[in-house]
Model the fold of this input.
Amino acid sequence: KPLLSSDTEIPWVIMTQALQNCALFERTLPLLVDSGTVPIMAKLVTSKFIKTFSPNALKAVCRCVAKTMCNMSNASEVRKYMLKDGAVTVLARVLAMDDTPAVLELCAMALMNLTSINANHKGMVIINGAVDALVRLAEIIHSPDALAKVATGLCELTEVTESLETMVQKGAHTALIGMLNTLTLPNDQEYALCGLCNLLGDAANHRPVVEAGIMAELEKLAKASESKKIKGLCAKILSNLTPSLESYAIETHILILSVLSALTADADAEMKAICSAAFASFASVPDEAVLAQMIEFKIPASMLVLLKKGNEGELVMQQCAATFTSLTRCIPFHERLYEQGCMEALNKLAGEGSVDTQQRCATALKYLSQTPQDINGLVEALVTLQHRATDQTVLKVCAEAIFTLSCDSNCRKVLCENAVIQQELLSSMRGGLMQTQLCSARALCNISCEPECAKVLLGPPPPPPPKMIMDEDSGQMILAPPDLTELRMGGMVDDFIVIAILRTNNEDVKAVCADFLFNLLHSEEHRDPMIAKGILWAVLKLAQVESQRTQRVGMSVLFNLSCNEAQRQTVIELGAPNVLALVQKQQTPETRRWAAAMMCNMSWDAGHAKTLVMEGALGVAREMIDLAALETDPCIPMYAVMLYNMAQGDGPSLERMILDGADALLVGLLDSTDVGILELACTALYNISCVRSCQLILADHQVANRLIAMLKEIPAEKTADNDANQPDSIALLLLGTIYNLTCHLQTEPAVASAGGTEACVKLSTSTFEPVVALCSKTLVNLALVAQNHARMVADGAMSALVALLYQDSFLTESMTTIALISTSPEVAPAIVHGGVLKVLRGVLEREGEALNVQARRDAALIFRNLSCSLESRGRIISADDVLTFCAKLLEGEDQPTLKLTAVGLYNLLVESNLDGVVLAEPQDVLTKIYLATTDEEAQKACALALVAAKPVDQEVHSHYSDGAVVALLSTMSTNGETQQVAEHGIEHLVEERMQPVVDFPGFEESSFARSSVNPDAIQSPQAEKRGHSEQAVWACHEIKATDFEDGDFEVLPKPLQYKEQPPHVRLPHAAGETSKLILKSVKTGLVVTSRREGVVTFQLQLDVDEEACLHI
Done:
């Protein structure tokens, strides 16, 4: 401890010399390390006071430290402890302080020993600066023996793969390359070459090593050295350099190929394996200029010669296959590759190689399939691989190659005639990987574009090819026993259906399977046999997958079949629910159009239409129809035709339609500006409204509101076209639907509240008689409900009815309507104000006795009912023609008419009125009624009216005929009481006449014909114009090679790089001689420094001769 605390040179010289002497004995080395020798030396060499040492003392200390460290490092068990204590740092400091050859060699040996340590601790060596120290030693040492130790140390450190780039950054590669010129012994050169080989294990080091001039040194060694070990190391270095060829100049590439060519001459098996690995790495460079050099040196031909020699080992075959894989990536080289015998080499590799070789061979064939100059050779090699392969990756790549061939129309013709290829593709799909299944399905899809493919598939499959299996006893591949399964016609189709449905789970694979099945149907010659095989069922099953591609194919098939009337039943036999489920899934514009066209085509057959309706087709259509795109969606016209065709059905079918919301769809179509669509929608609505049960639903859904709104927008003068034979069909259909709704008493209020009267009033002026007839009948039905009367009068019904009274065709219905309205007293004033009685008198005068009895009764009924209104009596009396009107009513002498007239006059004369007016001179009319009627109540009414009649203008006498006198006398009762008519209020129509009018034959007068399916329904000429316009499209689904995703043509992994493990070198034991120190004598003395309480303190003094020399 006193020595350690000293800061002068003498104690340290003594101590380092003593430690050096102790380190001469191997048994003391562990004790020295455990005692902290390395930290002691580290303290010394890193201290500041060492700078004050004399030159001789400094050299002595450095030499002792180097010898001690060198000897201690010989003990392998203590090296890791030395590293922890900072041994490398100590040696680095010694190198910085003393560069004498002896010290440098000792440091080199110590560092070499320290690097020969367990790999887990070598990283610590590098971190502590060993690389820097060794690189410095390489620069300043000139002794080959010492340089060999430096090379060994650097080579040992290259075992730390994580630090390879760091070592190059510190100049380790430059040191190793520089030592190749100095080292003369092959064993020493091996260390340098091994170190360089290992440094190249990190791709980041490739370019710096090449730039440091390694190629020139390798060329010298490869050509000058006779050592196979040296040549082998040169080959390995070149092989490791090849992965970074793209970063070198072309001159470097040429030099590498030149050296490799020189090394392969008369090379043994190991050298050939190394060179083949170098070729494989060289060929993996994506730069065509680099690969072109391989073609120029005819490397493919050289590899073919190599393979022909036989017994070259699996490694050589593997690397050759890898080289072909890389070279075939470049399409411009394919022609020369074919010329240099690549197909012969690949066929040999396919037939003899291991799984890894097969993978690389298959990849090369895949690339060559892009330029099939030798289609037969390619097919032969691919079939060989498929026969031998048990690896799924090989089968996948083979499937990719066959798919690539199938993209070429010329190759496709060869493939479609080869049943073996198709059978192999099916086998690959049966148990292969997803990618294998996908490529196999793609290949089959393209092959099936040829009609000959369907013929081959419908025939018997080829005999199963022999398969290679693993023998459990020997572990070798042997030929499997033949499969004796019975071959059946069309068996390959059955197999594919099972595979597509049960053996594939990927959506993309199923989509391609669907394309393949579609292609099998494109040939009309083979379509029916394929359908018999269950192709349609398989397509529909695949379409159930949540994939737009499979759904698209399924929809395309159904659409195409529906375009052929003879095959529509086939679609129905697939099951309407299945068909509709597929329709419901269509989302793209194209498939939505196919779905609409298919349903439109199917609806032309009444039975098919009913089946679709009953299975919920309207619910599906409701989801598919986009009413927001009414003017732009091409599906709308087809759905309009479909709804029209379905509405031609019977009652149950129409009921199901309305329950599924057909009315909402049809009402939505009414917004279209296409007259044809409008007519189809209106016709369908009319046919639905003919069913009584549907009328209630239509009214509940307020369909009348929309129809009446449309009617209000149609000008009355335009309800007929310029051509008299072409009436305004839209107005006629709309009115027909409204009329049908009024044929049900429960639906009439909905029509009235929606403004039905207003629409009828407007269109009653039409020049087209069927339209007017519908208006007339609709008004009759509306008037059957008393609550509609006020609304009808408010909407102007009386003006329309008055106008219709002038037309003989509508006289009776108009009279009935007015009679019905007159039963509501609250509207009587409006009726009277409208001049109805005057018009009725004109009718009576015009028709005379020719007027039918019922019309006359209706006129009398109207008169009586109007007279019941207090507000109306004054107006009726004030009219100067009321008695004339009554006289005209009596001309027919109809008893009900007489009674109605009598009661009406009774009300005018007996009951009061608001205006206080009196009917003048009614005696003649009353007397005539009295004498003509046989009804006692009528007679009583006449008599009482005569009593109530008074003279006018203070007339002093009245004219009473004999009949009048008799009538007056009859009013007098025996007891003198006043009599009155019991029933003189509102008179309603008889029950039989209170039923809606339900007959309208007017459509026969227009362009509409009655439906052959439903006599109540009508047909529109627009349907034939719109329908049957779609044509089937059986264009084959071909998949292009560009459809491959990124990575499909990825090169297989490159061969592993070489890593060398040089033999470790250590000294057998500690070496050196014991050293002694001879110093000048010194004088000593004791000096008392203090005396206190009996205690004396002394101080030791040493007097040293400062001029004395130090002898060692």
